[in-house]
Amino acid sequence: MQIQISGHQIEITQALRDHVQSRLNKLDKYFDNVTSLAVVLSVEKLVHRAEATLAVSGRTLHAEASDGDMYASIDTLLDKLVAQLRKYKEKLTAHHREEGRELRAE
């Protein structure tokens, strides 16, 4: 998985980069076919925002999170991406289950 981290109105420190990579590398655990991930971190006054665009096979997922702390917004972003990945994976597996049941019924 390729991870691209960029900042808008913020300098990406090594600590932020390490935190993003350590958290978002866990996405491979939920879905195997994650190809790329683009993360944009930004600060507007007192709001710290994290946005991510995740490319998986056949779909592009996008999530945003904002909080008073950048690390908290990154963690919230991870939770949102995990929920989207689980939903997408469930749709894929549930679809195939229905086909199998129909074939067995015939």
List keywords for this structure.
106 residues, alpha+beta, Double Stranded RNA Binding Domain
Q: How would you explain this protein's 3D organization?
A:
The protein is of the alpha+beta class and 106 residues long. Helices cover 48% and strands 35% of the residues. It contains 3 helices and 4 strands, in the order E-H-H-E-E-E-H. It has helices at 14-24, 27-30, 70-105; strands at 2-8, 34-44, 47-56, 59-67. The chain has a 4-stranded mixed beta sheet with strand order 1-2-3-4, covered by helices on one side. A hairpin with a 2-residue loop joins strand 3 (47-56) and strand 4. Helix 1 (14-24) packs parallel to helix 3. The N and C termini lie far apart (42 Å). 17% of the residues are buried. The mean pLDDT is 87.
Write the layout of secondary structure elements.
Blueprint (H helix, E strand, L loop, with lengths): L1 E7 L5 H11 L2 H4 L3 E11 L2 E10 L2 E9 L2 H36 L1
Helix pairs in contact: 1-3
What is the gist of this entry?
By secondary structure, this protein is an alpha+beta fold. It has helices at 14-24, 27-30, 70-105; strands spanning 2-8, 34-44, 47-56, 59-67. It has one domain: 2-Layer Sandwich (Double Stranded RNA Binding Domain), CATH 3.30.160.
* Average pLDDT score: 87
Which word captures the global form? elongated
Q: Approximately how much helix is present in the residues?
A: 40-55%
Largest sheet entry: 4 strands, mixed
Q: Radius of gyration from the CA trace?
A: 17 Å
Oligomer category: single chain
Span between N and C termini?
A: 42 Å
